[in-house]
Specification:
mainly alpha; 200 residues; rod-shaped; 8 helices; three-stranded antiparallel β-sheet
Length: 200
Amino acid sequence: MEDKKQKLIETLRGAKPPRRKPAKPAPAVRIEGSHNIVGNGNTLIHAQTVRPKNVIDPRASELSEAQKLRLRELLNEWITVHNTVRTRVKPLTHASAWSSFQRKFLVSSYHMLPLSRYEEAIHWLRQQRAKIDGMKTAPTRDPAWRARQIAYIKARCKNQLGDPYCYRPYIERRFGKSSLSDLTDEELAATKAYIAHKKP
């Protein structure tokens, strides 16, 4: 028995050590996109994108609170009129209307709109609503359409043209009527267009 052990020890001492395979180099890590890091071909780590927070100080705005409120009101009126009249198309969301305003004036907040562009912004928002008011289906689909046209005509005559009744000669001559409420929808639309283009 002792002989067998001795022979086994001698055999093992004389044997060559087993060959080791050279270690493979670790595969390179590659980065794809801004969110995923892939390593060893199968490791996926979600890396959070750090975005700086845009902090706006409303006190630094050039616009007054009343002016900002007026912009918001006109934006909301545009959305309401669009969704009332244009029922066969995709509804206008607040997000898409605001996005259009941002693209037009290159701002991310009402606070960032310069005072020098305030009147332009008011005019642009009114134009968006006027485009819808000018559609043939507007008078039948929007119950507030007539009241809005009459209010516009009276306000423009009084505030911009300096005579609250400067529409009367036009409607008397053209339609034989003396009151805006007596006009048909077509006549009212024509009167609004005339007053809108009339110079002070």
